[in-house]
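Per your request, structure below.
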């Protein structure tokens, strides 16, 4: 059985970085910075620090590729969403998580496999 601690809790900033990595795959700090600079206004050094911390937390893998660090996600998108879904279901909608997961089923936001994984993670988390 999965422990609750195994479902990561992402800050909004961490989620913004993960969202890009889930969509585009491996990225350098510069690539993440370029993707977020217009919406976040973060400095390159801020993005680097955040990504290094995320790697230390086990959220990202950091690999040196000819002097440039490349980061890739170490958690799946459904795992990253699981705590947010639980919070949204419990505190915002005051309903069960299945209702929130069903909302994803009616959109193109997650694939069928991702929805199945999200359901499994939430079931194991109870």
């Amino acid at each position: 059985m999965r422990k609750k601690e195994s479902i990561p809790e992402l800050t909004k900033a961490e989620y913004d970085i993960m969202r890009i990595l889930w969509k585009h795959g491996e990225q350098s700090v510069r690539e993440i910075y370029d993707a977020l600079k217009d919406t976040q206004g973060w400095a390159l050094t801020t993005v680097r620090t955040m990504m290094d911390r995320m790697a230390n937390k086990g959220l990202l893998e950091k690999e040196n590729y000819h002097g440039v660090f490349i980061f890739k996600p170490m958690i799946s998108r459904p795992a990253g969403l699981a705590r947010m879904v639980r919070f949204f279901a419990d505190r915002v909608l005051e309903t069960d998580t299945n209702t929130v997961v069903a909302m994803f089923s009616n959109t193109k936001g997650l694939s069928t496999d991702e929805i199945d994984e999200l359901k499994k993670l939430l079931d194991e988390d109870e």
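The chain has six helices and three strands.

Regards,
D.
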